[in-house]
């Protein structure tokens, strides 16, 4: 290992957490039962770091993102920003949302068709009473790659391409000069030719502004291209996390392996049986065991952990920079 690699890894390990979830639980009532949408999550995002949160639809990613934004209150655990627990008073939340901004997946749905680009980007600064509105809007559009910004002021969303609309949404977030962006499937609705441009923009914003980001996605290919670290979520809990290259080149959890198998370069496709279980009825043992290809193939039995997979609960993963997986089989063969 070179001296440069050691220095980089030390910096990664000691990077202070800017936004954190600590033992976060979020529950909802569903047909008389409690749905555990987020069921014990530890997650940290450092200054200038991009973390990808990956998993199937219904795994709890969006609920976790909404809770980090202060839009949902946790049942237990806490959200921390800058080392302090999130205050849910109206004034404190308003100030917090200047620092942590949301970028939604559907720019068409995010933008009011009756509002011009200028009005869309100016909405946040007006809510927060910021001076020099025109200068803020122009600067935000320019940072988002819409130049010269004045050329876009009076345009309406239907006059823009999909990529331009997404840039307007990003400009609306940048207008408040946030420290963290939470991007929910930021390129899912865009053509393949435009996806790379938006991902490059997010990386450039990180370099130029020191922005941190949580990118919520079902696409591990996107995570590979943009993230420093990846957290894989299944049924309300993070089941594997670590540096993106380490996790995606040598995944230890069978669920991560299955998600990766759909990528074109994967040598073998893993087809998971069934759907994710009902979050009101999370199974005992490993929550993935009913769909696990390693258990079904007999590999877990070969190393003597099949009974543990079906009956023994796994510890909640801590928020650490190194690679880790919540899996009895992975622990047995490591």
UniProtKB/TrEMBL annotation:
Q: Please provide the Gene Ontology terms (biological process) for this protein.
A: peptide transport; transmembrane transport
Q: Does the keyword Nuclease apply?
A: no
The record ties this protein, via SUPFAM superfamilies, to:
P-loop containing nucleoside triphosphate hydrolases
Q: Which UniProt keyword terms apply here?
A: ATP-binding, Nucleotide-binding, Transport
Gene3D superfamilies in the record: P-loop containing nucleotide triphosphate hydrolases
The UniProt transmembrane annotation reads none
Question: Any keyword Transport?
Answer: yes
In terms of InterPro entries, this protein maps to: AAA+_ATPase (IPR003593), ABC_transp_ATP-bind (IPR050319), ABC_transporter-like_ATP-bd (IPR003439), ABC_transporter-like_CS (IPR017871), Oligopep_ABC_C (IPR013563), P-loop_NTPase (IPR027417)
- Which stretches make up the ABC transporter domain? 19-260
Which terms does the record give in the GO molecular function aspect? ATP binding; ATP hydrolysis activity
Top-level taxonomic group = Bacteria
Give the matching PANTHER family: D,D-DIPEPTIDE TRANSPORT ATP-BINDING PROTEIN DDPF-RELATED, TRANSPORT ATP-BINDING PROTEIN
Q: Which NCBIfam families match?
A: oligo_HPY
The entry sums up its family as follows: Belongs to the ABC transporter superfamily.
Tell me what this protein is called: Peptide/nickel transport system ATP-binding protein
What organism is listed for this UniProt entry?
Answer: Nonomuraea maritima
Q: In the record, what lineage is assigned to the organism producing the protein?
A: Bacteria, Bacillati, Actinomycetota, Actinomycetes, Streptosporangiales
């Amino acid at each position: 290992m070179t001296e440069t690699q050691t220095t980089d890894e030390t910096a990664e390990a000691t990077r202070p957490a800017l936004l954190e979830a600590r033992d976060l639980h979020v529950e909802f009532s569903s047909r008389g039962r409690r749905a555990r949408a987020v069921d014990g999550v530890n997650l940290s995002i450092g200054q200038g770091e991009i973390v990808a949160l990956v998993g199937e639809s219904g795994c709890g990613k969006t609920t976790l993102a909404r809770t980090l934004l202060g839009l949902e209150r946790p049942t237990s655990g806490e959200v921390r920003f800058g080392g302090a627990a999130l205050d849910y008073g109206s004034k404190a939340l308003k100030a917090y949302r200047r620092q942590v901004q949301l970028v939604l997946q559907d720019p068409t749905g995010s933008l009011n068709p009756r509002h011009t680009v200028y009005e869309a980007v100016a909405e946040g600064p007006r809510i927060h009473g910021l001076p020099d509105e025109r200068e803020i809007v122009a600067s935000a559009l320019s940072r988002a790659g819409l130049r010269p910004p004045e050329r876009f002021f009076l345009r309406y969303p239907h006059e823009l391409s999909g990529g331009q609309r997404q840039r307007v949404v990003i400009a609306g977030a940048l207008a408040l000069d946030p420290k963290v962006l939470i991007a929910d499937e930021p390129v899912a609705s865009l053509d393949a030719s435009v996806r790379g441009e938006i991902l490059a923009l997010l990386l450039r914003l990180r370099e130029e502004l020191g922005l941190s980001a949580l990118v919520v996605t079902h696409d591990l290919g996107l995570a590979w291209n943009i993230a420093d670290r990846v957290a894989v979520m299944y049924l309300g809990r993070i089941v594997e996390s670590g540096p993106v290259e380490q996790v995606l080149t040598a995944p230890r959890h069978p669920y991560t392996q299955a998600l990766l198998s759909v990528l074109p370069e994967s040598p073998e496709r893993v087809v998971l049986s069934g759907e994710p279980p009902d979050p009101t009825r999370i199974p005992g043992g490993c929550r993935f065991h009913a769909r696990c290809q390693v258990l079904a193939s007999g590999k877990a039995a070969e190393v003597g952990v099949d009974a543990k997979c079906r009956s023994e609960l796994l510890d909640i993963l801590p928020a650490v920079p190194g690679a880790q997986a919540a899996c009895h089989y992975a622990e047995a063969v490591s």
